[in-house]
């Protein structure tokens, strides 16, 4: 479940999309990005042309699934799923991408 994680994206200019660690408010500072939650699923969608860094930070122990999906319009053209990834309190991870949507649950 992603309820154990914060999900944040940064572009090459330092713009941020995710929940601010200082205000607790939603920021969608990357042009064209959208952040939303549905239950325990956290999703950020951004244009494929934007290089980005994904930052994950755990605040509890548990497991999560990471879905990376590339869309062309409304059509999925590529998808990768990583299931059962363990986390412990204070776990953190970064990865870099371009042209993918990130879904965690």
Please give a quick description of this structure:
The chain is mostly beta strands and 105 residues long. It is 0% helix and 62% strand. The strands form two sheets. It has a five-stranded antiparallel beta sheet, with no helix packed on it.
Note down, in words, how this protein is organized.
The chain has 105 residues and is an all-beta fold. The chain has one domain (2-104). It contains no helices and ten strands. The strands form two sheets. Strands 3-2-1-6-9 form a five-stranded antiparallel sheet, with no helix packed on it. A five-stranded antiparallel sheet has the order 4-5-10-7-8, with no helix packed on it. Strand 1 and strand 2 form a beta hairpin. The N and C termini lie close together (5 Å).
Write the layout of secondary structure elements.
Elements: E1 5-11, E2 16-19, E3 26-28, E4 34-38, E5 41-45, E6 52-58, E7 62-72, E8 75-87, E9 92-97, E10 101-104
Antiparallel strand pairs: 1-2, 1-6, 2-3, 4-5, 5-10, 6-9, 7-8, 7-10
The helix tally amounts to 0
Integer tally of domains: 1
Structural class: mainly beta
Mean pLDDT: 79
What is the H/E string?
EEEEEEEEEE
Describe the oligomeric state of these chains in a short phrase. single chain
Neighbour order of strands in the largest sheet: 3-2-1-6-9
Beta content comes to over 45%
Tertiary shape: globular
DSSP, total strands? 10
CA radius of gyration is 13 Å
